[in-house]
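Retro notes - structure team

What went well: the batch runner handled both jobs without manual restarts.
What didn't: labels got mixed up in the shared folder, which is why I'm recording both outputs here explicitly, each with its sequence directly above its tokens.

Job 1
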Amino acid sequence: MSQFTKSIIPVAVLVIFWFIPAPEGLSVQAWHFLAIFFAVVVGLIIEPVPAALIGFTGISLVAVFGLISDSAKANISWALSGFSNTVIWLIFAAFMFALGYKKTGLGRRVSLIMIKYMGKSSLGLGYAVAFSDLVLAPFMPSNTARSAGTIYPVANNIPLIFNSTPDNEPRKLGAYISWVAIATTCVTSSMFLTALAPNLLAVDLINQGSGNLISWSAWASIMLPLMIPLFLLTPWLVYVVYPPTQKTSPEAPAWAAKELEKLGSITKKELLMATLALVALLLWIFGKSVGIHSTTAAIAVVSVMVLSGIITWDDVISNKSAFNVLIWFASLVAMASGLKKVGVLEWIGSGAETYLSGLTPTMLILSMLILFFVLHYFFASTTAHTTALMPIFIAIAMKLMTPEQLLPFSILLAGSLGLMGIITPYATGPSPIWYGAGYISQARWWGLGAIFGALYLAAILIGSFIFI
């Protein structure tokens, strides 16, 4: 698709929906807002320009046309409301954690230690890659930074030791490691609230739509019992379903030991980074009991990171990825809140109630979880998926579920966001990196994605029987 075509499609969507008469029960103002929302979602999917600019343009158009209120001040207050959102700043702070791991070399050291002590067999290497991701996951809400930025540079060197390349015996080791890496990062992305940025976005949208504020510990109480067995099973299951032809790998620990020698002894900054990450995690889990908000803990730790020299202030203000996500998510949070303000969510919920009220509670919950998961085949961005569908699904759940059902359902719905990244080569941030390594063909990736996607979805559905 040409750049011009990509650019014209969102505009065409906006114009077409804008001039279609508003459906019964929805005001013209609300319909025009929905037209802009549809255009933003389409733009996020095909990305004719950076995603942050798409969201920023969306809130600008809504404010210019005065679709939220007749008051100009109320419109601009709404447009900028996402920038005061605590979740957005938690995500921003966590990007600084990722930078600290990279600058100190702690992330690389963790991966090499895992390979040194677990990598004597191919299966052991799979678990080494998996546990490297697990150790970093609670502190890195970008699975792209974690898997593609930290794990990939280390893990991608391992197959080369055995002369396994995309063009020469990819199944010897490279294909196995690639699939274990992407499969386990999808599991860890769902395991912890802070392991995937869209998790935090989803939690904020759930809070806006239902009033339920999901804490780190509430998320863990449901997702950890489901994800720990899945995490432990994944490298072994890949070994069975898509086995490497190289079964032993004594060279890998030796290579990792040499790389660790090059790194030298662990530094004071690495130890401090590990300590600060642990402090942040403890405050995310227990901070509420001592009156410390999770975002307060995050920005305080970032301040210490800068003051102690782990990262510099120039690192903070020049971190394009962090500021890009801040603007992007702040815009999307505002757009999603606008759906409720103009009455779109109430209208959708009422319409869904008419069609779905005949389903049993169990069938309703299962149907919504399956549909939310499967619809990700049409999205190349977990963030776009979250923005487009989470407010709608929560609006329907508000109409048809009891308060006791709503909270665990919301956690399972948001918790599926990481898992659904396994289904296609474009489903989550690290996927294009591991797919681009060239060890797994597109047809094989789709096939494995269907198998593991079904397994991962089954874990969520089992969770609905246990927790709802």
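Job 2
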Amino acid sequence: MQKLYAAKIQFNDVFLKVYATQRGLSFISTIDSDEILSQTIHEEVNIEENEAYLTTYLQELRQYFNGTRQVFEFAIDMDYQYTEFQRQVWTQLLKIPYGETRTYSEIATAIGRPKAIRAVATAIAKNPLLIVIPCHRVIGKDGQLRGYRGGEAMKERLLTIEKGQK
């Protein structure tokens, strides 16, 4: 049986639930939506609320929200049934510098699949680690914000933090 440790974090209007295994951070979801967690884990899981166990993760996330951290240093655990395509997309997202954005088509081109824009958008929507894998840095070709699992207001808030405007 898989064991996950969980804790809630709030920064201003952002409410998240953070999950980790003994190997590293596994999921970040909005408080009212754990759909990625339930879609990803295909085995019985024991979830233990344990803020103390997640101290390092929560501390780095708070630093990010305060504008004092640009890179996360904690371990992540992506040892679940993700597709190779999803992993390629998420790896490309990790290459987007703090404070910058890319379009869905730029991500598709960067992974060598320039016509797979919708598939890229679908993979981004299934990103299990909001903020850490910076899917909020992906915008529409017209410069407009497009869907975000945490909501457009949260996406805008994260981009504002990264522009140094908190």
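One thing worth noting from job 2: The longest strand covers residues 2-11.
We'll revisit the folder naming next retro.
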